[in-house]
Amino acid sequence: MSGMFDVACEKVVHSGRYVDNGGSICDYHISENWYNALVLNVYKVFIADVDVNSEQTKQSTLAQIKYVISLLNDSFVVYETHSGFRIFMTNKLVDPLSEESKTLMDMFGADPRYSSGCIHQDCYRARLTPKPQRVVEGKKYSVCKEVHRSEYYYEIPEIQHVLNIHDNYTICNDLPLA
Q: 22-27 long-range contacts, Cβ below 8 Å, gap at least 24?
């Protein structure tokens, strides 16, 4: 994961590696960003961040994401976030510097700052804890909730491991998104 933290300069609070029986490796790091939120940093587990501005736009954006997924021969899981959606590809690993990654980011309408950050930092990122400005002290929040899976959903073991970490941090059913 060369260059992953050259630019980010974030404190790494946890690092891990998943190695399956076939020897496939998936490294990940959990870092603390400048406003003290925990962030999952992972190389080759495709994650897109799609931002929207209103509930009306959210529904049309989700419909567009579902349409794009229906055109592809890959497996995806979609999470709703406070301000949009987070999309994971679950059936194969994708280099963040690859043309495939760039094409997928464009097709899904990913946030341009997020997309360029993935290229610049050579990894995909997903915030695991709420942004401080979105929370009220003493209340609990969820960062995201799952809203869609591909019709023929499949997870390879490396990605299943990363999704388990992601979901354990981010999903608290029936709590407001922050």
A: 24/93, 24/156, 24/157, 24/158, 25/158, 26/93, 26/158, 26/159, 26/161, 26/162, 27/1
Residue among 58, 47, 48 nearest 82 (CA)? 58
96 found inside a domain = yes
pLDDT in tens, 21-73: 666 677 888 988 888 889 999 989 999 999 997 666 899 999 999 999 999 99
Provide the whole-model pTM: 0.89
- CA 134, CA 161: separation in Å to the nearest integer? 28
Hey, is 77 helix, strand or coil?
Answer: strand
Cα dihedral 49, 9, 94, 23, rounded to 10, equals -140
Q: Residue 159: is its pLDDT beyond 70?
A: yes
State the residue range of the domain holding 152: 4-170
Q: Give the number of domains in the chain.
A: 1
Q: Which region, left, alpha or beta, applies to residue 162 given φ > 0 means left and ψ of -120 to 50 means alpha?
A: alpha
DSSP single-letter state for residue 121: H
